[in-house]
Specification:
The chain has 318 residues and is an alpha+beta fold.
């Protein structure tokens, strides 16, 4: 090899070394432990650009970080910013390699609002479908309450390119990191109405996570009387008793009776969903939000969809 060729080789190696250093993770089989440490450092230091580099373009974590740098989180700006403010100071230690070479074990001590979010949402659902559809409203209510301190040891699954695997692998970790808010980042709310029947859904990535079926009738129109309305509500609740992930109830505010059914799809079994007519036969897998909206529209419902991320549109919005 002559001097000229050797000089070219040295320059090439130098350039590639610089690229490798600047890229951080993702080239030449980077150490997953190092990638996770840099990602977590970026989160706690509000380095949005660096943090975003560890996630694929369609990952919902980008929506949360848009509120941090003010690049546009829409109606969720205040909510996302508050979630980050409350979780930024998490105490996180990267322990080392996990159960295999692509997994990294971490210890995290942070504040958790998962119960607050869930309880505020359920309270809104029990009050009315309109309250449930106002996601920023009940989320703000949840964040106004004290969270609880949690300490967890978890594994983070890192892709060969240095980016974090999506929720199929890291949902538990992402949920702890965001204080129990991961399911709600970039969510879509859908409300469908037909006469006295209403269906409301919260979904993410076209997957229904929670739903509310609501029926309203006047005493005179339903054939009930003020004397037997409580018995009707009790009977209605009993109809759904024992179904996993399902809760039914009713409220009488003269002269209207409101009956409702809440479904938590993370807890509901296929048997529960089948008995409610949500899935057919032994169907398994997630319930599609877009397919549910289209099915309700085909049945005569008018649907309104509010998308806080990548979700679906109603036919009227297209």
């Amino acid at each position: 090899m002559n001097v000229k060729s050797l000089k070219k080789l040295f320059i090439t190696v130098a350039v590639m070394s610089i690229v490798f250093v600047l890229a951080g993770c993702g080239l030449f089989g980077s150490d997953p432990t190092d990638c996770v440490q840099k990602m977590l450092d970026a989160y706690t230091s509000a380095d949005v650009k660096e943090f975003a580099s560890y996630f694929e373009e369609d990952d919902r974590m980008h929506y949360l970080m848009k509120a941090v740098d003010g690049s546009g989180a829409g109606e969720m700006q205040e909510i996302y910013a508050k979630v980050y403010e409350l979780t930024q100071n998490a105490e996180i230690t990267v322990v080392g390699q996990g159960t295999d070479k692509d997994r990294v074990k971490v210890k995290i001590k942070t504040v958790d609002y998962s119960d607050a979010f869930y309880n505020s949402m359920i309270t809104a659902m029990k009050e009315s479908g309109t309250k449930f559809m106002d996601a920023p409203g009940w989320m703000q209510d949840a964040l106004s309450k004290p969270g609880k301190t949690v300490e967890r040891e978890l594994e983070v699954h890192v892709k060969p390119n240095g980016k974090m695997y999506d929720a199929n692998y890291n949902a538990e970790f992402f949920d702890v990191l965001t204080g129990g808010f991961y399911d709600y980042i970039g969510c879509t709310m859908a409300g469908c109405v037909a006469d006295s029947s209403k269906v409301y859904m919260l979904g993410n990535a076209d997957k229904v996570i929670y739903s509310l079926d609501e029926y309203r009738e006047t005493i005179s129109g339903s054939g009930m009387t003020a004397g037997n309305v409580n018995g009707v509500i009790t009977h209605y609740k009993a109809k759904y008793a024992g179904l996993a992930g399902v809760e039914a109830g009713g409220v009488y505010t003269e002269p209207v009776v409101r009956l409702y059914v809440l479904v938590d799809y993370k807890l509901a079994t296929t048997n529960s969903l089948e008995k409610m007519g949500i899935v057919a036969g032994s169907a398994t897998g997630d319930v599609s939000l877009s397919a549910s909206v289209k099915g309700l529209q085909a049945s005569g419902y008018n649907c309104e969809v509010t998308d806080f991320g990548v979700g679906v549109e109603s036919e009227e919005d297209k």
